[in-house]
Each structure stands twice: as C-alpha cells, then as structure tokens.
Amino acid sequence: MNARLRNNLWGYFFIGPFIIGFLAFTIVPMLASLYFSFTSYGLFDSPKWIGFENYIKMFTEDPRYLQSLKVTFIYVLGGVPLRLAFALLVAMLLNAGSRAVGWYRTLYYLPSLIGGSVAVAIMWRNIFGDDGIVNLALNSVGLDAIRWFGEPTAALWMLIFLSIWQFGSSMLIFLAGLKSIPSSFYEAASVDGANFFQKFFRITLPMLSPVLLFNIIMQTISAFMTFVPAFIISKGTGGPLDGTLLYSLYLFKQGFEYFNMGYASAMAWVMLLIVAILTGIIFWTSKYWVHYESEGK
Amino acid sequence: MTKKRPQYYLYHILVGGFAVLLLYPVIWLFVSSFKESGDIFVTAGSLIPNPFTLLNYAQGWEGFGGYGFGTFIKNTVVFVIWMLLGHLISCSLIAFGFARLKFVGRGFWFMIMLITLMLPYEVVMIPQYIIFSELGWLNSLKPLVVPAFFGHPFFIFLLVQFIRTIPRELDEAATIDGANTFQIFYKVILPLVVPALATTAIFTFYWTWDNLLGPVLYLNSPEKYTVSMALNMFLSNETVSNWGAMFAMSIVTLVPVFVIFFIFQRYVVEGISTTGLKG
C-alpha cells in the first residue's frame, strides 16, 4: 500500500463519522424536506405533489405567515443591533476598569449562561406579569404599568428585551477583541490630541470589525431561529394576537400541531433562503466596513 | 498605593449597580421561591419572604403524573451522559482528521462542515422526525443522542483550532518512534486537547440540559421527560396558585448550571472568546 493511499484511508477513517452523519442527518433530510415542500403532506396520508402551491399560499393566502415573518424581522432587526451595541458598550466599560473586572465579567455573563433555559423564560413571563416587578418599577418612577400580555407589540418587545438581556457572550468576545488592540495605538492618538469619539471610530471600531462581522452573522442566524422564549412565554400560542409568533414557532405549529408537514417544509426552505440572503448581504456590506490588519499597510 | 480617586468609586457604583439591576430578576425568582404562592405577587416588591417557606420545594419535587421531579432530573442526566459520550468521542476523532491528516477532499469536507454550522435545524426537522418515527425511535432518547455520535460542527471547529496550536514536531517524533496514525491521535494529541474537550463537555452539558425542542418533539410520556419538559408541563398546568412550586423547580434546574459554571469558569470564558461559541 503506498503512502498516499494510506493517508487517504486514515483521513477518511477519522472524519468518517462526520460524513456518515452529514449524509444521514443532513443531506437526506434536506432533500426529503425539499421534496415535501412541493407536496401536500399530512400525518396520515402520503405526500401528494402540488408544485409551488405551498410557496404561493404562504405569501398570498396566509396572513398568519406574513405576521410571523413581520414579528420575526422586528425581533431580529430590533434585538440583534441593540444586543451587540449593549455588549460593546459594556465590554468597553469593563476594558477600561482595573482588577475587579474579572468579577463583573462573570456577573454580566450569567444571563447569557442561563438565558436559553425554560426556567428563565418562566421567570421572564412572571416579571412582566400585570403585577410583576417590571410594572412595579415603571409605577415607582411615575410611569403607567403596561399590559405586556395584552398588547402584541409590548409582548414582542418583552421577547426582544430577553434577547438583549443575554448580551454576555457577545460581550466576552468583544472583550477578547478589545484586549488584542495594542495600547500604543491609543497612546499615539492621545499624543495627536484625538478625543474619545475619534479614538472609538478610528481605532476601536475598525480594529474590532472582523469580530463584529462574525458576531452579527452568528447572532442574526440564531435570532432568526429563536424558539424557546416565544414557545414558553406565550405558552405555545404565539399570542397575544400572534404578536410573538416567531417564524420557528409558527413552523413548529404548522408541522406538529396542524400536521401540515408539506407546508412546514416549504416554510423551512424559505427560512433557509432568507438566512442565506441575510448572511450574503452582511458579507457583501462587510467589504465597506470590515478592516483586516494585513490590508492598508 | 495612592489614594483612590472619586472616579474609582463612581466606576464601581455604576458597573456594580448595573450588574445588580441585571441580575435582579434571578434574585427575585430565587427569593420568591421561598414565599407562599399566594404572596408572590402581593409582595412582589419585597425581597424578604415573610413567612419563609420550603413548601414550594416539597410540592414541586412531587412532580406530576405520578413521577417525581427526581425522575426528570435522572432522565436529563442520562441524556447528558449520552450526549457527552457522543460529542467527546466523535468530535475529537473528526477534529484530529481535519487538523492533522492530509487527504483528498479535506478542504471540501471542512467547508461543508462550516456550512452545516449555519444551517437552520428547521430544514431537517420534519424529515428527521419521519425517519426516526419509521425506525420506531419515537418516545425514546435515540433520535436525540444518536446524531451526537456523528459530530457537532461547533465542537469540531473548536477542537480543530485547538489542535492546530499543538507543534507538529510532537507527531513527527512519535512517528520516528514507530507510532501509527491512531497512536499519534490517542497518545500524543488526545492528552493535549483536554482543555478543549473540557469546553466541549461543558457546552454539551448546557445545551443538553436546556434543550426543549428535541424533547418536545420526541418524548411524550411523562416518565421520560427531561427537566425542561417538566417545567414546560408545570407551565401548561399553571393554575392561579401554584407559581411557588414552578419557581422552586426553576431554581432547582438552574443550580447545576451555576455550579458547573463556577467550577469550570475558565474553560467557558476561553471557549467563547476563542471561537465565538454562543453560551
């Protein structure tokens, strides 16, 4: 056996599990789901080919679908930038501090740590209740209490707040990025008389931009797929008035509550398309704002 | 040491105060779990349970459907152990292959792996469900744990990055000593990637412990429920007065997460900072 053949065999021996898993749990299901998306497929009948009907119905005959698309976009476009801005702000604050920072870093990370759990979704549901502590706080500063579960918009913002609350993991990534910026850059800028904002826009932001790009993409994708908080907080309904009917939740309901497996598959493919397009747009804009160190030297 | 300036105190009041504000809901949940159910929202503004009671914990622990909360914890621990076995074995093998071996198609498969990292689960959810139901695997852990034995892109990526930092001279030295490829993996690389395996293990624990969608899809008899399913059931059965038990069991499910975090903090922080894994 020659060396090259041996290398190939070893290589495929080690990554073999990935290839098998990829075929069995990704490619085959993906092709199946693509096929189902062109069929009418319930729980007890076999798939019946109906062409593009599912896709057409989505955008023309299903107001709940359009509603779920709308709330998901608000959730993503509202939540992701706010969460990242918050994460960056706190990371800069911690980066400026001294020794106790390790502790603060831990405390600020905790919400992210537990944020995906059912326990936290239950907690969130209860602090935003009519008699919950959020309304108590609003009252104590002289504002009116909000009926978070009565207003579709308020309910959606409750979910967005939950996502912002979990800024900790992005903060850790930014903090690592900030630490890698040489302090000599800032010192040189100070000598030249740059103020805080000039340093932020000319040094911090460009130096951090690759990390920022990565974060925006990953956070956008995961925000688009958010399921647990909407499922728990609305008790699986997506209410009030479909105000928290996030895309994943509606897809789940179509597939496993109404057993429209074909329709749900079509929804999944549109979701994949939207995520791919969003990622593509972000990548495309990145050449205008992401700065890589090796360039421009 | 010089006398501390006012800015120092201002900084700590601001940053520390904000941390308290951020964690206040969790503190409130914790305190409320020791209040009588009827009092929780009457005295929502107070952080002192009066009277202090452990009744919620006793009630919550009884669980429902004839199964105590201990059963749900046991089920979740079994789930976690299978996921740990699956991820640790498969991801270390696969990562070694990508990081160290030269073979035809390596770049292609690595790219495929990175793409699957971004693939929404929803796209495969329905056919997977149908496949597993054809196999008769519904209402068991198999649909949830079997895929774990074929790797997870996040952890493969993490381990690949880590293995790449290990000097190749070690492999070469072992080759000269007559080790074959598997022995290099097992005796040279594996002991050195323990920190990255720890990160993999910790995140596997978190994601499995919190997993709700998987159990919702695949487990349907109460005796098999995980803790997240159990909490979801508490919520569905929510009546006017049993918040206490639900809060108490929420706290119970959060404790292991906190404990693991405080013991292994270093691995968590490093894991996130180096790969951008989300927590």
UniProtKB/TrEMBL annotation, chain A:
Q: Some GO term, biological process aspect, for this entry: which one?
A: transmembrane transport
Q: Does the keyword Transmembrane apply?
A: yes
Q: Where is the ABC transmembrane type-1 domain?
A: 69-282
Q: Could you tell me the membrane topology recorded for this protein?
A: Multi-pass membrane protein
Please provide, in alphabetical order, the Gene Ontology terms of the cellular component aspect for this entry.
plasma membrane
Question: What's the short name of a Pfam family annotated to this entry?
Answer: BPD_transp_1
- Where is the chain membrane-spanning? 12-38, 73-94, 106-124, 154-178, 211-233, 261-284
What keywords were assigned to this record? Cell membrane, Membrane, Sugar transport, Transmembrane, Transmembrane helix, Transport
In terms of SUPFAM superfamilies, this protein maps to: MetI-like
Q: Where in the cell is it found?
A: Cell membrane
What InterPro entries does the annotation carry? ABC_transporter_permease, MetI-like, MetI-like_sf
Entry's family note: Belongs to the binding-protein-dependent transport system permease family.
**Protein's UniProt name:** Multiple sugar transport system permease protein
> What organism is listed for this UniProt entry?
Terribacillus halophilus
UniProtKB/TrEMBL annotation, chain B:
Membrane topology classification: Multi-pass membrane protein
What is one cellular component GO term in this UniProt entry?
plasma membrane
Record keywords, A-Z: Cell membrane, Membrane, Sugar transport, Transmembrane, Transmembrane helix, Transport
For this entry, the protein name equals Multiple sugar transport system permease protein
Boundaries of every ABC transmembrane type-1 domain copy:
73-264
Localization terms from the record: Cell membrane
PROSITE patterns named in the record: ABC_TM1
Q: Which family does it belong to?
A: Belongs to the binding-protein-dependent transport system permease family.
In terms of Gene3D superfamilies, this protein maps to: MetI-like (1.10.3720.10)
Principal location listed in the UniProt entry: membrane
**What superkingdom heads the lineage?**
Bacteria
> Any stretches that span the bilayer, and where are they?
9-31, 77-96, 108-132, 144-163, 184-209, 243-264
Q: Which Pfam families match?
A: BPD_transp_1
Please spell out the taxonomic lineage of the organism that makes this protein.
Bacteria, Bacillati, Bacillota, Bacilli, Bacillales
GO BP annotations of the record are: transmembrane transport
Coiled-coil positions: none
